Amino acid sequence: MKHDSKPIWIATIVKDFGAICQQMHEKLEDSAPSNLLADAEKLAIEKMRNMTCQIQQQAIQHEIDERTSQRDYRLCSCGQRMRHRGIKQRQFITKAGSIELSGIYLHCKCGNTKPIKQFVSGHSTMTPQATELIVRYAGSMPYRTSGRYLKDDFGIKLSHETVKQIAVSAGHQIARVRNENSDVESWEKLDGQKLYGYADGVLINVNSEGWKECKLLRFEPEDGSEVRFRAVLGNVDRFGRTARREVTHLKASLADEIVFLMDGAKGLANHIEKNLPMSRLIVDYWHVCQHISECAGKLYPDDPAKAEKWRKKYCHMLREEGPVRLLKSLSTSKRHRDDEQVVILSKLINFIKPRVRKIDYPKLIADGYRVDSGPIESACKNVVQARMKMAGMRWSRVGAVAMLEVRTALMSDLWKKTIRQIAA
User: Measured between alpha carbons, how far is 146 from 153 in angstroms, rounded to an integer?
Assistant: First the structure.
């Protein structure tokens, strides 16, 4: 809508802006050279944030008053004239801060209404940019801390409970978008590359349930140009289905091969093999070394130096000569041990035997495969523990599931696409 004359509020804002510029000029004249940047930043943030909110509030309020004063605004879609039910005020949240707007509330006999919220922003009191900001803060620090920093940094005044509600709602919407909409998740650069998947478990303290395992998935192309996370808190069957869905969404059919790097436990590996039978599973080298280290500690409980020497010997043998050579050496070693030590060695042998193909590291390395699962170890700390395992932290199941969706989207390459879909 175009207007013939400039509204009065614009002239007022221009005058106020000139005053702010003058204040900054005077402030900087009195500042020490080493403080020029800091003083200018402080004044700009304090004054310009307030002015930005004022501009938004004045501009939108002027438009509300102009449009609601027109006669046809009071006509309902049913053709009847709507009744004036008073002036209503409502707080709206923008990335520049909180603003208050007022307008007439109209009601029709047919049941239709025209509240200010619907007129200004559909059914939301928050802009998409503000929603993204709030969810990002809530996904990075505790809700109470988020509320405090949102107020300090942007002038957004929300209680920590409101921040929590927004984050939980966003988490559920992110899950829906990621489960249903493959368009937001596809990778187009997999052609000619291996797609690497990693999986591991992280314990989370859930109210009335105790410590529950969250299964974390990490995907990345061979060149490491992108990264994608997904987490499941609950049934291990869901983990397998989630892994299959993610691989489908990523268009893994374009990749040369799907490779999963995992620890030696059978649980998660069985569900990967069941849901993604075309993938290749590799047992992480360092997890096998942990089993060798445990064996060494039990063989030489009173001689740490000898245990360390034994561990180094067999870890080196595994990586350089392979599992077949390792098994042969361990079997030979059993001949010179007592019964208790034979049992200890047999346990290590029984772990290695069924995994020979998955731990043939000399061949795997020669063929260009990764054999270390460092990326998932760091992901467990950075994606899950950094937000969800702070001192004394406990979660409701609903809150934990929602926050896992926020965290895995936030730490993935698809954050912007996903959050814009749910905030729109």
Answer: 10
- Among 105, 135, 107, which Cα is nearest to 120's? 105
Contact 170, 358 (CB under 8 A): no
DSSP tally for the chain: helices H, then strands E: 17, 8
Cβ atoms 416, 128 nearer than 8 A: no
> Selecting from 3.40.390, 3.30.1360, 1.10.3470, 3.30.420, what CATH number does the domain 180-284+372-423 have?
3.30.420
C-alpha distances (whole Å) from 182 to each of 176, 220, 414 are 11, 17, 12
| pLDDT tens digit sequence for 213-235 | 999 999 999 998 899 999 999 88
* Token couple for 292: 């060798």
The pLDDT, as a whole number, for residue 183 is 62
Q: C-alpha angle 8/12/17, rounded to 5°?
A: 145
pLDDT of 4 strictly over 60: no
In the predicted structure, residue 423 carries a pLDDT above the cut 80 = no
pLDDT of residue 1: 45
Pick from 368, 277, 287, 365: nearest CA to 322: 365
Q: Residue 93: beta bridge partners?
A: 98, 126
Q: Are the C-beta atoms of 229 and 218 separated by less than 8 Å?
A: yes
Q: pLDDT tens for residues 251-310?
A: 888 899 999 999 888 888 999 999 999 999 999 999 999 999 999 999 999 999 999 999
Which residue is it, tokens 């996370």? Answer: 229
Q: In 10 A of CB 388, how many CB atoms?
A: 21
Domain boundaries, the chain: 8-125, 180-284+372-423, 286-366
The label of the residue with tokens 């290695």 reads: 352
Highest mean pLDDT among 68-77, 179-188, 296-305: 296-305
SS3 percent helix, strand, coil of the chain, rounded to 5, is 60, 15, 25
Task: Provide the mean pLDDT of the chain.
Answer: 89
Closest CA to 282 of 205, 336, 361, 227: 361
Residues with Cβ within 8 Å of residue 295, at least 6 apart in sequence: 344, 345, 347, 348
Dihedral of alpha carbons 315, 316, 322, 328, sign:
negative
What distance separates the 2 farthest-apart alpha carbons in the chain? 101
